[in-house]
Amino acid sequence: MTAVNFKVFRGHVPRISRRLLSPNYAQRAVNCKLNSGALDPLGGLLPVATIGHEIQTIARYRKFDDAEANDIWLAFTGFADVVRSPLANDEEGRIYWSCDDHEPRSATYAQATSASPFPAAWYALGLPLPTMQPVIASVTGGAEPVESRSYAITFAATTGEESGPSPASAIFSGNVDGTWNLTDLQTAPPNNGSISAALVLSNGRVRLTLNTVFGLAAYDTITVAGVVGMTDLNKSLRIVKVLPTTNQIEVVLPTAQTYTSAGAWARNAALNTSGMVKRIYRTAGTGGQYLYVDEVPVATTTYDDSKPSTDLGELMPTAGGLPPPKNLTSLGSLPNGCLFGITENELCLSEPYMPYNWPLSNRYAFSGKAVRAMPAGDSVVVLTQSFPVMYAGADPSAMSPMLMETYAPCASARGAVNVGGGVLYPSYDGLWLAAPGAVSKFTERLYREDEWKKLRPETFRGVFHDGLYYASYEHDDGRRVFALDIGESDSAVEILESPTAMLSNELDGELYIAKGGRILRWDADPGSAYMADWVSMDVQLGQPTNFSVAQVHADFFEIVPPDTEFIAQDQALMLAGADAVNGHMLGLEFNLIEVNGSLLIPPRRQTSKKVTFTLWYDRELIYSTEVTSEMPFVLPAGIKGEVVNIGISGSVRVHSMTIAQSTAELREASQ
Question: Which residue range is the domain that position 8 belongs to?
């Protein structure tokens, strides 16, 4: 018998010659789902939201009000990492995010949803430290014994953030129950100011002279406006250097213009100074530990302290505290309440449940340049341009590093995904898995290096969903999607789609993508399914053979005419004139249709339900036909081939396909 039968459909294996592939594997598998064994077309995209700008990152944000869930879409124009507040029962619904092109930011639910698109407003994450030393001007009244003290202040925002301390005052001695008179309590750092000069430097930078640089740091972003002469400055810029002693900053700006006058600057991420207070702390004797004394409005510059030591409060919670580095990326969270992120060669962690406090004691330098950091259980995996590094530990100030001694650089930060106990990420020779204790090439049996490079792993934008790793990548014809079943990593599938962002939404278990300014649900619309395309491996026969009959088993009952009713309705409205369409101003009552809308029904992407069978002999196309039932059909006679390929494409499920030299062989092979 010389029948060829496919009852199980698998993906393609680029590493192996198509003549040496195992039965049921494909040389081409496009727009299909193969995890059931059948050939299933991928369902169509279902639009769920339209955003007013190009989307590079999407996130789903949920806040509960009186046990009712409120979900919104967050859409970013850059590559962002978003985490929810680690605080228990956070009534403000805080979120935090980092982005490649600006400083780390935070927002409450009210801020984020104050206008659309979301997030609409935010604050910079963390507060700068006061830079002025409080002064103990005098101690009046009281009686001995005499005590020596030092004072320090912090800034505290209404959202609960507290800065690290100011420089400590000089130690002063006075009567313990006297009134200690403090001056020079620094006021809040500004969110905007003026520009008085701009100088072009030889290294492609411009040096700006500001009214103050208090609170500004390298990698902060500001918007400059109103500059006369050097108008190239009037835009959003990122600071690369701060010169505190001269109130100057440097920005990258190649320009041939000359500064004339004027200009103003404003933070792109304001500090939360509305309602800000100063907290005053003092040492108890010469013990060196600062205890809470009082808090005053941030504009207050003096304070008289007569509080007895028995009335002092808690230890300063942010001693040694710092805001996160302004170039922090890969923001993530751990089960112990810490946030983490990376700079160029440093892993940084916040204090537990204090996402605004990132002390130097919680920072770990490593060799090489970081690309991405991701959680793996209680640990953090840092992917670099050379060797991965894993940090483990419950205490952020006592993390233990372990260099994974395998050269496996991360080719794309956006391609790395968390898969439970480890991180799956693209390198230049394959997909790698970094897990506690080991790093291994996950696609060793699927791709050789030359085949893998054709996928351009440096352009990967990955997501892990329902056991599959999806990666959108750059192709000569635009972006495409590569899909790999992690549980059975023996073959891959290609999807002809071009998302700019992908999200596995843990709130509803669905996969979403972004295209341009739209958000769409993946594999959600059977009525507009993609056209699956599957071509078998080379079937090597013992001698040239002619197959006379074929049969396909599929869900043919789903083949129905496409819904075109909306087309006829729209055509009738258009022929009836503008008054019938009602797209003009005041054409209909208020709120009946959306602004800029009309009575026309938008066209829906629909796939014509069909199944097409194709046959090749010795790589030459012999026959192709549309199949509409499970009845056997006749193949061309008088043509023989020694190498046979069978192709099937369609928008309904295909269970099997068979070719044979006779109906008897066909019947026997199909059983």
Answer: 4-41+529-559+607-670
